[in-house]
Amino acid sequence: MKAEGRVWKFGDNIDTDVIIPARFLNVSDKKQLARNCFADLRPDFSGGVSKGDILVAGSNFGCGSSREHAPLAIKESGISVIIAKSFARIFYRNAFNIGLPILESKEAVDSVEEKDNISVDLATGEITNKDKSLVFSAQPIPDFMREIITAGGLVNYIKAIDEKGGVYH
Amino acid sequence: MGMTITEKILASHSGVESVKPGDLLQCRVDMALANDVTAPLAIKVFEDIGRDRVFDQGKVALVPDHFVPNKDIPSARQARMMREFATRYGIKNYFEVGEMGIEHVILPEKGLVIPGDVVIGADSHTCTYGALGAFSTGVGSTDLGVIMATGKVWLKVPPTIKVRFEGGVLPWVGGKDLILYLLGLLGVEGANYCAIEFSGSAVKHLSMDNRFTMANMAIECGAKNGIFKADEITMQYVKERSSRKPVIWENDPDAGYKKEVNIDVSQIEPQVAFPHSPDNARPVSEGKHIKLDQVFIGSCTNGRLEDLHKAADILRGRTIAKGLRLIVIPGSPLIYREAIKEGIIETFLDAGATIGPPTCGPCLGGHMGVLADGERCASTSNRNFIGRMGDPASEVYLVNPAVAAASAVLGRIGLPDEL
User: Fold this and answer.
1) Helix, strand and coil percent figures for chain B, each rounded to 5
2) What is this structure's pTM?
3) Is A64 on the interface with B (CB under 8 A)?
4) CB contact under 8 A, A88 and B154
5) Which of B72, B152, B192 sits opposite A60 (nearest CB)?
6) Residue B160 and residue B157: Cα distance in Å, rounded?
7) Best residue in A66, A94, A155 to probe B by mutation, most B CBs within 10 Å?
8) What is the pLDDT of residues B170-215, one digit of tens each?
9) Do β-strands B354-355 and B325-328 pair in parallel, antiparallel, or remain unpaired?
10) Which CATH code of 3.90.400.10, 3.40.50.720, 3.20.19.10, 3.30.450.20 fits the domain covering A2-163?
11) Predicted complex ipTM exceeds 0.85
């Protein structure tokens, strides 16, 4: 599984209120959520993002509210993967659960600039900055969580178990 | 190696003898919670999985509290979806407008959480129930939908940070100030993925309402949960509300901690968290130049009866500053009723406040007190992120209820002693 795209770069402590302000949470339609993604912080985001683009951020990305609308809005916008120095706990599990790949790498984040073209090998965690000819290795994803991503999210993961007549435990 | 309280609760719900930080567990859930913002997505997930019933009709709580009473047509549709789901699947703990209050206020109040429980909620402030010696944490809607179907959640066992609050507190200092001070010390991601255990002589005599405030804000430094050991104060509270048998866990003498933090509370002044982060905590004395347009007393952090008492004690016989709006929202119908009986509501009205129905209100910028650009609000809630209570160019200052009340009279941030 490989992702390749242009970088949208953000700073530290990007909270979920900023990713999708609460005034847009009166709906749960993904397309409407995506239209308002980063509405106040980056009004150019929802109109400018292209399918496959990569979101790069500093530490503690997705802190604050548990709203799953935040990773959903980012995923629906077309972002293929998020690379951050670190993720807030709830955002981290929400992203895996909805099948949005995320990786942690301090070095890659420091080297990447807005609009760089980068590629990511999700299986190996290798991040290549094509514009700067640099290669980085992200923290490996735990096996259990890789299974969830491969299944396309937690729901599909559980459905697959159900179909095989197994028990989710 | 011995186990901490958090580790013991998780082990007891996963069918294993012992656990250590980093272990991945499938954990049995005693109570699954969602609100009108997070439930609709969770319901879609539940329906997508395709089970014909929830795992336990008595162990799901659905509380419309964010945008209810419906603030607009889309909100009305989300609330209706949740109501219809609750009816169709026989959810016992669905609370309609009238019996509804803020989720994290009413669940303990109704005895739905007791020591030793595992509570998972699609709301980040689900960590509030750690005040009762329960393990509780916030998740997203997919997790919640899966729990409604299976009764299970996957969790990684968090390492524990032990915090000892020692000494006697200064006047006007409460649980809110202790937690704001700790947030300032640890930083906004200082406890990411960790459990925080609150202990020490200064919290030993703290009331349940103060403990709820502290556990509630554990998430603001990234913690998975914040927990108190259940004691006599906890047991008194629980005994009056639940007939279930609590399970009280203690740390093993050789339990391992990731970090130990010792705080001398006698040095802590009442705190104010400046914009735009809850960890930007400073003494209130440094905020006296901050003029205010609005003061909000309420939320899952400080909307309980003791909080209203503290605010009313300051406001009795006084009126709020001209041009300032004071919005008071009791956290539950029970608190509202009690506040009426005790004359507290009349005190607020006499002072010039307006009272809202029990709901989250303006805390997350939903309704009933949204801020315009350039406006400043002192709030007893838990977050002051950019745009949290309204326009991205507004500002929120987090304070305790006594400081909020004094600030409403002064028209600026200040201490009750200044009145």
Assistant:
1) 35, 20, 45
2) 0.97
3) yes
4) no
5) B192
6) 9
7) A66
8) 999 999 999 999 999 999 999 999 999 999 999 999 999 999 999 9
9) parallel
10) 3.20.19.10
11) yes
